[in-house]
Structures are given as C-alpha cells and as structure tokens.
Design a protein that fits this description.
4 helices; globular; about 45% helix; alpha+beta
C-alpha cells in the first residue's frame, strides 16, 4: 500500500471525509500534517501544492489535491490502483 500524506486541520469536515474514503479503500495509516498546530507547515504545504485549502493529499509523491479531487479519482476507478502501486 502506498504512503498517504494529508495536510489537514483539526476542525476540517472535508479532511474527515477524505480520511473515511481512504480507509474504506484499505488505507490503514495516513501521515497527517496539522497546519493549524504547526504554522510553518502551512507555508510548506502552499509551496508544495500551490493551494491554500485543506485537505491536500499525496499518495506517494503524487499530489492528488483536495477531497473533491480524491473523490473524483475514486469515482473514475483510479484511486485503488494508485494506492496499490
């Protein structure tokens, strides 16, 4: 199973939904980076992704985007193969 990293905040409903979807697809562990607890990580996230919103999800080194992007990838049957790569 590929490493999943998610930039998130403690009170983000889309982060919770993204985590639920990933777990439904077999992800046992998500490396979470809480940008509300570590403001320096917000700058790192914005530099890496070019985006300001959370969640920002990486599968391996591939930037997936936010929850809507993750959900669209799943609906297109691309999420599980990417997780298993």
């Amino acid at each position: 199973m590929a490493q999943v990293t998610m930039y998130c905040t403690s009170v983000c409903p889309y982060c919770v939904r993204a985590e639920m979807l990933l777990k439904q697809r077999g992800v046992a562990e998500i490396h979470k980076i809480f940008i509300d607890r570590d403001p320096e990580q917000r700058a790192v996230m914005m530099e890496r992704t070019g985006r300001r919103t959370v969640p920002q999800i990486y599968i391996g080194e591939r930037h997936i985007g936010g929850f809507d992007d993750l959900s669209a990838l799943d609906r297109a049957a691309g999420l599980v193969p990417l997780l298993q790569a």
